[in-house]
Amino acid sequence: MYDVAIIGGGPGGYAAALYAHNFGLSVALIEKDKVGGTCLHRGCIPAKAWLHTADVFTEVAGAADVGVVSSPPVVDWDRARRRKDAVVDQLHSGLNGLMKKRRVDVLAGFGRLAGRGTVDVTAADGAVSRIEAKTVIVATGSVPRAIPGYEIDGDRIVTSDHALDWPQQPQRVAVIGAGAIGAEFASLLADLGSTVHLFEVLDQVVPGVEPGAARVLARALGKKGVQIHTGTAVEPPRVTPTGVVVPFAGESVEVDVVLVAVGRAPVTAGVGLEEAGVGLDRGYVLADRETMLTGAPGVYAVGDIVAGTPQLAHAGFAEGMAAITHIATGVAAPVNYRAIPLVVYTAPEVASVGLTERQARSAGYDVETHDHGIAGVGRAIIKGQTDGLVKIVVQKDGPIVGATVVGPAAGELIHELMYAVGWEALPVEAAAFIHAHPTLAEAVGESLLAASGRSLH
Questions:
Q1: What pLDDT does 379 receive?
Q2: Is 0.70 topped by the overall pTM?
Q3: Which residue, 68, 191, 307, 337, could crosslink 54 as a Cys pair with Cβ 3.0–4.6 Å?
Q4: What whole-number distance in Å separates Cα of residue 47 and Cα of residue 40?
């Protein structure tokens, strides 16, 4: 009998499996595909490899602006795709090595709860084996959502799963959904020369982030040539011999391919959750956020399937660790959801942590905000990337409760503000630390100074 059986080998599942060695727990990790899950094989990692290709292409294309004269760059799509695969394979190999080192038994197959402490594992050939464990963690992840009328065929109408392996660069693309996934694909495709239409039914790109940050990103995407249609619902498409016609608001556009990027749905069907007594809400698992324990004794849930928590790989990591800690010690080690950063890897990047101004006011906080653009920051001018800002949300006479960064390396800069939010730092405390000059991080320092009431520039 194992101490822990984990159903699903994505970020939440494999993090729990690896973390268990700290407590000497025996672990079986059940995965029907490859350890690493969507994030490693069909999400975070391959998408960022493509985004890096777009970044390099853009930098080389503009090299003459900084005095480096070269031939105009050409995208070798197949080579870029092979490099993406090589990055994924390297990380997958390393992860498999860690599983062996930590003595995690990886079982290939589909896991299903079959009774208290019992999991049935169905292999690819249909053979079923049964394992027993004192506790079970369900970490079955998510899949791309579809929308009515847009039947996914993997050719003309696709999800991000397909787009990461396009055999050639599509020249005309409609992206439906301007959340993180849709905005990232729009950014990289436009940088590489594709014509892109970006549709979003809500009133801004990347809904949920600070409106000012969304406006900066929308302007930047517009400069790349992305045609943005916010507040716009698409109508059912018409597939033609040459592409797909997408109707919207009395107009239409014909493209080579439609990328549906309207979010991700939890994978909870067929796992035996309801039969085991696990509560569900629209397919999401109801779990205690202090411990990740569900309503079924000995059954935990982590990652994208958990109701009300962010669908982020690093949130899954943290939840897996929290579940293992509770299993091993009986003591809750809850995830600090308030201080989990969100990063959108567009160019420019958008990153946030804590509450937006709107969220803070809705929650009843009396807040002040302080913005600092990066247009005057020396390092940003040197890099030729001056679209961006830093915004700090501060409880009046209290701590920093949220922050947003837009600009180059925003995904790295946000972690300084993550600590400020997580530790409930007062602006005057955070502003006391000195930022090196010239750096992009000076924009953060300037914002903190302004928030403390003692601005410099």
A1: 96
A2: yes
A3: 191
A4: 9
Chain position carrying tokens 């439906």:
176
Sign of CA dihedral 389, 390, 395, 398: negative
Q: CATH homologous superfamily of domain 157-262? A: FAD/NAD(P)-binding domain (3.50.50.60)
CA-to-CA separations, 236 to 150, 176, 239, in angstroms, rounded: 6, 12, 10
pLDDT at 96: 97
Distance CA 187, CA 184 (A): 5
Contacts 24+ apart (CB under 8 A), 79-87: 80/49, 80/50, 80/53, 81/165, 81/166, 83/49, 83/53, 84/46, 84/49, 84/50, 84/53, 84/164, 85/46, 87/45, 87/46, 87/49
Residues in the chain: 457
Alpha carbon of residue 407 to chain centroid: 17
3-class DSSP assignment, residue 270 = coil
Span 2-144+265-337 CATH architecture? 3-Layer(bba) Sandwich (3.50)
Matching residue, tokens 């998408």:
47
Give CA–CA dist 134/118, Å, rounded: 9
DSSP category for residue 247: E
The pLDDT of residue 296 is 97
- For the chain, which ranges sit under pLDDT 70? none
Q: Look up 52 and say whether it is catalytic.
A: no
How far, in Å, CA of 328 to CA of 331, rounded?
8
d(CA 328, CA 107): 22
Phi, psi angle pair for 34, to nearest 5°: -125, 140
Q: 52, 162, 314, 437: which one is catalytic?
A: 437
Residue from 85, 107, 93, 98 nearest 30 by CA? 107
User: Nearest CA to 155 among 15, 285, 3, 257?
Assistant: 257
Domains 157-262 and 348-451 share a fold: no
pLDDT for 453 equals 86
The enclosing H or E element of 407 equals strand 400-407
The amino acid sitting at 23 is F
Indicate the CATH number for domain 348-451: 3.30.390.30
| Helix (H), strand (E) at residue 132 | strand 128-138
